[in-house]
User: Which sequence fits this backbone?
């Protein structure tokens, strides 16, 4: 009986508008697998020659707290770090193309078009909307990277270093761990600062109303802290400094929507 109920639920979800959009996007993604593979390889190959300079720049004495030494404890640690950084570049290209394609299939789906006409919502042309969303996303990403690089990372590195040195510990950091710490904070801030863009797109599309977002405020705040726990270093201060800007930006987007669309 439970199996039949589960099958019926899955069938209803598959027949729903959301299920049809996911199915259409899935089929399109399968057809575009070679394109995604090409983008990953392209990003990897373009970034790899610059990884040595990036690591050298990252471990410069001017960017490290006083009394900190960077060490390598494995013969292949540096090459693995280079591969990791180049892989991130490839993933960034793939992620951007993936989001654009899923959004395209969602907006162009016939059920979504019918719902937009019913709600009398006129979206800009796909090309114009895509360019505007990409430009806004890039601007927010730059702001997030600046927040992490000039504020979050120096503060946390100084705090963690001073805390360890005060109890008499030597501060020798492993290269891969230090680079991973910095990259994770940069990635967390770049992703978190997309909150106002996502909130605005959801509200303007008519998928969710301001009232529905307001009633789900606690869940959204909790989700911001959960996201921060996954993508930030495992300490309470990092979690707080990553999650709070996301919440502030989300609330700012809701307020801006309320002011521009009474």
Assistant:
């Amino acid at each position: 009986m439970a199996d039949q109920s589960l099958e019926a639920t899955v069938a209803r979800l598959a027949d729903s508008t959301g299920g049809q959009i996911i199915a259409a996007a899935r089929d399109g993604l399968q057809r575009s697998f070679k394109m995604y593979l090409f983008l990953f390889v392209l990003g990897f190959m373009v970034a790899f020659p610059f990884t040595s300079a990036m690591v050298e720049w990252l471990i410069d004495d001017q960017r490290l707290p006083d009394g900190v030494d960077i060490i390598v404890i494995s013969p292949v640690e540096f090459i693995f770090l280079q591969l990791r950084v180049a892989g991130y570049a490839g993933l960034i290209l793939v992620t951007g193309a993936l989001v654009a394609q899923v959004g395209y299939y969602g907006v162009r789906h016939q059920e979504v078009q019918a719902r937009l006409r019913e709600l009398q919502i006129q979206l800009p042309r796909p090309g114009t909307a895509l360019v505007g969303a990409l430009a806004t996303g890039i601007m927010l990403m730059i702001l997030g990277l600046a927040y992490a690089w000039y504020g979050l990372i120096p503060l946390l590195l100084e705090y963690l270093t001073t805390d360890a040195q005060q109890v008499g510990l030597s501060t020798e950091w492993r290269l891969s761990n230090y680079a991973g710490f910095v990259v994770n904070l940069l990635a967390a801030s770049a992703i978190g600062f997309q909150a106002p863009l996502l909130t605005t797109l959801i509200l303007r599309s008519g998928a969710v109303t301001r009232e529905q977002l307001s009633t789900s405020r606690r869940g959204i705040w909790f989700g911001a802290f959960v996201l921060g726990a996954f993508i930030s270093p495992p300490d309470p201060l990092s979690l707080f400094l990553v999650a709070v800007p996301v919440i502030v930006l989300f609330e700012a987007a809701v307020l801006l929507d309320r002011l521009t669309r009474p």
User: Anything to note?
Assistant: DSSP finds twelve helices and two strands in the chain. Residues 2-142 form one domain. Strands lie at 68-71, 171-174. Residues 77 and 176 are 7 Å apart (CA to CA).
